[in-house]
Amino acid sequence: MIITSEIIRILILTSVAFIVAMAMTPFLTHFLFRYRMGKQIRTEGAPIFAKMHSHKEGTPTMGGILVWLTALILALLFGLLAQIAPDSYLAELNFLSRGQTYLPLGMLIFAALIGMADD
C-alpha cells in the first residue's frame, strides 16, 4: 500500500483539527456554563414530557460551535499561511485554494446557522 501526499495532507489536517477542537473544548464549556446557555425544558402543554426530561435541564447546548469554528479557524489560518509563505509545505495544506471546497464550506456555515437557530 502506497501512502500518497494527499493522504498525508488529510491526516495532518485532521490531526490539527482534532487538537484545536480539544484545546478549545474547556474554554467553550466554561463559557456555556458561566452564561447558562443550557437546555431549557418547557413545562406548558406536556407536563409528563417535562418531568421525564427534567434531568437534562441546564445541559450545555451549542456544542456544534466546536465543529464549525475549528473548520473556519483552520481554513483561514492555512489560507493566511499560504499567502505568507507560498512556496512552503504549509501552502499545500491550504484547502481554500481549490474551488471544490467552497460549496462544502458554505454548507457548513449554512448548517451552523440552522443549528444556532435550533438551539
Description:
The chain has 119 residues and is mainly α. It has one domain (5-118). It has helices spanning 5-34, 47-52, 65-84, 89-92, 102-118. Helix 1 (5-34) crosses helix 3 (65-84) and helix 3 packs antiparallel against helix 5 (102-118). The radius of gyration is 19 Å and the shape is elongated.
Index terms:
about 120 residues, mainly alpha, about 65% helix
How is the secondary structure organized here?
Blueprint: H1 5-34, H2 47-52, H3 65-84, H4 89-92, H5 102-118
Short description:
This protein is mainly α and 119 residues long. The protein is built from five helices and no strands. The chain has one domain.
Summed up, the domain count is: 1
Q: Kindly report the average pLDDT value.
A: 83
**Looking at the chains present, what oligomeric state does this protein adopt?**
single chain
| Mass-distribution shape | elongated
Order of helices and strands: HHHHH
Residue share in helix: 55-70%
- What about the largest sheet? none
